[in-house]
Write a structure and sequence with these properties.
This protein is an alpha/beta fold. The chain has helices at 2-14, 18-30, 35-54, 60-84, 106-117, 131-141, 153-168, 186-191, 201-211; strands spanning 92-98, 120-124, 145-149, 176-180, 196-197. The protein has two domains: 2-84, Methionine synthase domain (Methyltransferase, Methionine Synthase (B12-binding Domains), Chain A, domain 1, Orthogonal Bundle); 92-211, Rossmann fold.
């Protein structure tokens, strides 16, 4: 029974089916399946989607579909982890969002999906995220990495603001900071004190591993 549930959970991700993913995650919890096994099954599926995207066999709608399906199931499993007080193996934890004044989501979604494929637990805090909201997310989730996206030049400076706020709150040394988006360059990333920058979504996912030495 457990193997069937895990197979169906994995297939729901591959089918880009959020309703089915949530349903099989719920059944897995009800049957007492180890949350780590369920997360591993979903990670394997999203990794396959990410690999397909990287080699040109799959496209942005596939990434978004896989992310939506995984996003429907992950909170159900994470709640079970909290209930059990269990720990799951992961590459690390990332908070990701698009900065205040910017409502672009595609690049952020691509990076978030590929980070999941690399084994990260990802908390996507959305778009138009204020400095205060980023700070609160860092306090809440205690991430290894904070990833911020800005597509427009006029909003890129918000990334600097968040970094300065992290310093003011005594949180800067507790988290690595990745920045990206169409408005950015390596020179700008260096000037605001970010730990890493990559112009592509696949490159950003690999960068996250390098920043943590994993």
């Amino acid at each position: 029974m457990s193997s069937d549930i895990l197979a169906n959970l994995k297939q729901a991700i591959l089918d880009y089916d959020p309703d089915a993913a949530a349903e099989w995650a719920t059944k897995g919890v009800e049957q007492g399946i180890n949350p780590a096994e369920m997360l591993a099954a979903m990670t394997d599926a999203i990794r396959r989607i990410g690999d397909g995207f990287n080699c040109g066999d799959l496209f942005l709608p596939d990434l978004v579909g896989g992310a939506d399906a995984m996003g429907a199931a992950t909170p159900i499993i994470q709640e079970e982890v909290r209930r059990l007080g269990a720990k799951t193996d992961s590459t690390g934890t990332v908070v990701i969002g698009t900065v205040f004044g910017d409502i672009h989501t595609i690049g952020k979604t691509m990076v978030a999906t590929l980070l999941q494929a690399e084994g990260f637990i990802v908390h996507d805090v959305g778009i138009n995220v204020t400095a205060d909201e980023f700070i609160e997310s860092v306090r809440t989730h205690n991430p290894d990495i904070l990833a911020m996206s800005a597509l427009m030049t006029m909003t890129a400076t918000e990334q600097r603001k968040v970094i300065e706020r992290l310093k003011d709150e005594g949180l800067r040394d507790s988290v690595k900071i990745m920045v990206g988006g169409g408005a950015l360059t390596q020179e700008f990333a260096d000037s605001i004190g970010a730990d890493g920058y990559d112009p592509t979504a696949p490159g950003a996912a690999k960068l996250a591993r390098r920043l943590l030495g994993r």
